[in-house]
Amino acid sequence: MFKAHCLALFNEGMDKHICVICPTRGRPKQCLEMVDSFLATSKMSRLKIYLDMDDPCLYEYLDLVSGKVPCVIDQRKTITQIINEAQGFAPECFGWFSVTNDDFVYKTDAWDVKLVGEIQLHGGIGIAYGNDLLQGVNMPTTSVVSREIVQALGWLQMPRLTHLFGDNVWKAIGQAAGCLHYRPDVIIEHKHYFGHKAQQDDIYKNTNSRAMYDKDGLAFHFWSTQEGIEDIRKVKNLLQKPAIA
Q1: pLDDT digits (tens, 9 = 90+) for 19-47
Q2: How many domains does the chain have?
Q3: Is residue 245 part of a domain?
Q4: C-alpha–C-alpha distance, residues 244 and 166, integer Å
Q5: What is the largest CA-CA distance in the chain?
C-alpha cells in the first residue's frame, strides 16, 4: 500500500525539485499552519504528508490538509522508517530532500531557492539549513540535502534512529565533510514547546521522553564511533567528484 501511494504521488513529471517529507500524528491544526506557510513561501519544493492509519485525528487531517497537499495513509511506523521509505520511492526529478515537522512555520519567501542556491554556490553537492529561531546555527533542522549524498549513504535518516538525533547526524557529516552551509536569513521557525512556542502534548511527551533520548542518543553515539566513520568517508569521496548538473 505504501509503495503504491508513493509511486502515484511522486510521479509528477517535475524537474529538479526538493522532496519534502513530513510524518505527522495527532496535530492536524499545527500541521495545517505548517502546510499553509509552506505553500505560501515555496518555489521549487513538493511536500508530502504521511499519516498513521490508526491516528484518532486522521479524518481531521483529511478534512484540513489533504485538499492542499498529497497525503499518504499507512500502518503506523517509526519516523525513520517513514522517511527512508518515502525517500526510496522518490524519482530522479527530485534533486534534493528535506524532512520537516508539523511544528515548523516557513517564514522566508523562496526559502528553498535560497538554500539550494547556497549548496550550488559551494560546489553543487551539500547540506544547507536555515534559522529555526530556536537553535540557529547550532543545529541543521529542516536541512536540504543533495540527492547524491542520500544515494551515497543509502538513507535520508540514519536507520538506527527512532525519532531523535537525525539533525545531529547531518551536522556531524556536514561538518566533517566540509559541506554544511547555514543561511541565518532563511527563517523556518521551530515552534517547539522547549522554546515556549507550543503546549506540551502526548506527542512531545513520547518523542522527547528520557527513554527516547537514551535510546536514540545511544544509537547516535554508536554510529558516530562506528558506521559514521565510513559514512563520512563516502560523502568526502563524493565531494571529490564533479557535481551533477
Answers
A1: 999 999 999 999 999 999 999 999 999 99
A2: 1
A3: no
A4: 26
A5: 48
Instruction: Report if residue 244 sits inside a domain.
Output: no
Cβ–Cβ under 8 Å, residues 94 and 21: no
| CA gap 84, 77 in Å, rounded | 11
Q: Is 201 inside any structural domain? A: yes
Cβ–Cβ < 8 Å for 109, 42? no
CB contact set of 187 (below 8 Å; sequence gap of 6+) = 106, 107, 108, 111, 130, 131, 133
Domain harbouring 148, CATH code: 3.90.550.10
CA-based nearest residue to 155, from 203, 221, 74, 227? 227
Residue 176 lies in a domain: yes
- pTM of the prediction? 0.89
Q: CA–CA distance from 68 to each of 15, 41, 48, 215 (Å)?
A: 21, 14, 10, 36
Q: Which domain holds residue 126?
A: 2-239
pLDDT attached to residue 15: 61
What is the C-alpha to C-alpha distance for residues 163 and 103, in angstroms, rounded to an integer? 15
